[in-house]
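Summary: Need help interpreting a holo structure output

Steps to reproduce:
1. Submit the protein chain below together with the SMILES for flavin mononucleotide.
2. Request a joint structure prediction with the ligand placed.
3. Inspect the structure token block that comes back.

Expected: a single structure record containing both the chain and the bound molecule.
Actual: see attached output.

Input attached:
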Amino acid sequence: MEDIGSLRREYSRAGLNREDLCPKPIDQFRLWFEQAREAGVDEPNALSLATVDERGRPSQRMVLLKAFDEKGLVFFTNYRSRKAKHLAENAAASILFPWIQLERQLIVEGDCEKISTLQSLKYFSSRPRGSRLGAWVSDQSSVISSRKILEMKLEEMKRKFGEGEIPLPDFWGGFRLKPRRFEFWQGRPSRLHDRFEYVKDEKGDWTTARLSP
Ligand SMILES: Cc1cc2nc3c(=O)[nH]c(=O)nc-3n(C[C@H](O)[C@H](O)[C@H](O)COP(=O)(O)O)c2cc1C
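--- attached output ---
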């Protein structure tokens, strides 16, 4: 067995105190997201998305956050993909931003819903042509025999759409994760990290609590 037990680092960049917390978690999210951008974190909008299948078995993958507001956090994907099938069965999801460069992780949990076709179209239209074609080419998460299949399908799509508009596929669009819980984690020395959660109550108000690291 490879022993990597000595791989460790002290976290000492910053602390997180209750007085620092924005009353609304989405504002705290915005603040941390901006700080991740300013710090030059690679792909600061990349997050790990965990879903569960019909038997409750978890799986995860990275996706890119493309929009957020009080209503939730939006990412785009293929509506026939494995993750989308999971979400159709069980809307519950958990996402995690691994901002390790800032000695932070940010976790958000809640249910996912599809955004409107109009909203998906708006974002789809803003994507580069290659990405729009790619959405048509990939039957995401299905088994394929070779890369050649993808290349042939791409050529077929290029011929089909020519120089014209590339429409939004009906199997592609956005999901909004509607937050029920946020957790802001800041690494501290001696593993005495700062953790604050915001949990939404039945009235829709947020309560905060410090958690033991
Ligand atoms: C940094 C990064 C960003 C990604 N962004 C997306 C994305 O925004 N949407 C997407 O569908 N897949 C994205 N992927 C690919 C997914 O991780 C995954 O392979 C794909 O969505 C299929 O997942 P599924 O079979 O679990 O549904 C990204 C992968 C990486 C590494």
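--- end attachment ---

Reviewer comment: The radius of gyration is 20 Å. The chain is about 25% helix and 35% strand.
Status: needs-info
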